[in-house]
Sequence to fold (756 residues):
Amino acid sequence: MSPLSPAPANATRVASPLEAARRYPPKPADVYLFGTCVIDVFFPGAGMDAIRLLEREGIRVHFPQAQSCCGQPAYTSGYTDEAREVARAQLALFAGDWPVVIPSGSCAGMFRHHYFELFKDETQTLKQVESLSARTFELAEFLLEVCKVRFEHTGAPVKLALHTSCSARREMNTHVHGRALLAQLAGVERVDHDHESECCGFGGSFSVRMPDISGAMVQDKTAALKGSGAAEVVSADCGCLLNINGCFEKQGDALRGEHLASFLLRRTASASTGGAR
Amino acid sequence: MSTLADTPAQPIAFTRNAREALADAQLRRNFRGAMDSLMDKRRNQFPDGDELERLRAFGNRVRARALSKLPDLLERLEANLARNGVQVHWAETVEEANAIVHGIAERHAAKKVIKGKSMVSEEMEMNHYLGARGVDCLESDMGEFIVQLREEKPSHIIMPAIHLNAGQVARLFHDKLDVEYTEDVDRLIQVGRETLRRNFFEADIGVSGVNFAIAETGTLLLVENEGNGRMSTTVPPVHIAVTGIEKVVEHLRDVIPLLSLLTRSATGQPITTYVNMISGPRKADELDGPQEVHLVLLDNGRSQAFADGELRQTLNCIRCGACMNHCPVYTRIGGHAYGTVYPGPIGKIVTPHMLGLETTRDLPTASSMCGACGEVCPVKIPIPSLLRRLREEAVRAPAAEPQHMRGQGAKHSKKEALVWKAWRTLNTSPGLYRVAMYAGTRLRRLMPADIGPWTRYRSAPKPAARSLHELAREHLGAQ
Fold:
């Protein structure tokens, strides 16, 4: 079963919304990085910044070149068989003992929680799924809870807003970890924005299948981010950033969100390893 | 708006309805304001997150246990209600349910029915059915009364007229009830009550819904805030309660957590103003109450959900509406756009069982899967998982053998299925993936500026010059 919560008595499939209290391993010497397909094509810089942040903590990063997508697009669209085969390919690539760090909460949630559903009828595969799930960490969570980083802000004081993707929030608690990392930085004032926990309207294929509803949602989200008075916007999910930045650009606004990893690499030094990058 | 009595084979025009709703600034302001207020009220009722989680788990267990022995509980409910003098009727379809109610009305030569709030009666389109047969139905819940005057459907399962503001109600009452125009809400309620008051005494039959049907005691429990539920169930000589078969719980004590979850989640109230527990008609030594009490138990597709271990969780629902109040889609388009009796997240997972996936095939898709609904559901229905399952059923290749879900495969498209097969091949063939990424990044300038629905509200996404695979290989070496 998924580590989220025990299944209700009448359920055969489960994906409950809240991450239960998680136990964390000691900081490892090696990790896998799963880069995600959206980062691969649209935000490779964020992926590289995640790699460099991990290296800054003295960790060796392994990036299996055969990796592709976690399977989520097909899974949420109802194409379960297709999602399963893509998931199976990833399972085989991350079969070692190293933790798998993912700079995206929704893809991390897919590895950690939804592969159980995909492979529920395959007893042998479920063992691999259990191992992968236990070793999967969202980047901010990994830095905070496993590496126990202490970051120092090196730039000018800044007001910023943090947007957390819905699955990152509800499946991985990423908003908690992201806020905690930013709270370490003396020069960073994180400001709340209106309806902060509300979806930005991305939702993968939702943004294309229901364009008008999705459009109304992202317009509200960009207005809320602007209204917060933040000079910068960060998020740990590039799907949302694709959506939010695209809307800012369409509106002729200069504001762009960047990945939390990029912000952290650019604007902090690591006190946990005793040196800047 | 489509009617359920003559269900159209065409899919509900959800996207068109949604577009119209989004363009209605007044509607959007009304919903955003109302939903924000309801979310605040609920939040204030659950200051302790741990207590909330324990209570939700408790509520979930109570509902799951009741459903695990549903057939047995329904039989016990029937036996104990019969012992209390309540006549129990079973209806597989809304047509059967309406015929039962009409039969009772005919037997009493009833001309007038007063109704407390009941979503199952909306499911049945009872007002329409009885009205066409010379029996007038009048809604006595203030919100229902308002939507009935406007000849509309409820836009929310708890607050039927939540799409309207005071000014709109003021104009309605002025036009339809011939009263002086006033936006004073207290005065408006007074006007409504005066109109309704005499109807309670003139009605031949009172109709109500049921919140919980308690098997061990044969009791029908009904919560409300206006007193109209108590009036409808006690003043007319005949009371007919209508409810879905899933509303049964085993013990009276089971109601305690569910009631607490229901009122706090729905309206942010620790308890409703009225909690009615109906255990039979007027007894010989009693001075008031109806002479006859009937219960109509309606299936209407619930058995289909019940038959599947996962989909059965749909029936946990206690109809609080919290999923609607927290839904970013519902908040923006309101209830009418769904074109169904039950709107919002719960509507998207329950209606396909009632109407089939042919007409409702777009509803499971109308979600960004943000999970807000599942997070607030007081009985822990995994709504996003069930939406995903229904998407799977809708796009499944149509099968030759009898199907478990009505309308399974209704959204199947050979073209889309092929696209996903190609997607699978691309993402399971590293060589092919590498070529595609190389092409996608090198040809990025060919990305058109207009890519249909996406670019209506956003600029087109721009592939990077080089993929992460390439950059990582350069930085880390081939792995």
In short: Chain A touches chain B through 78 residues (CB under 8 Å).
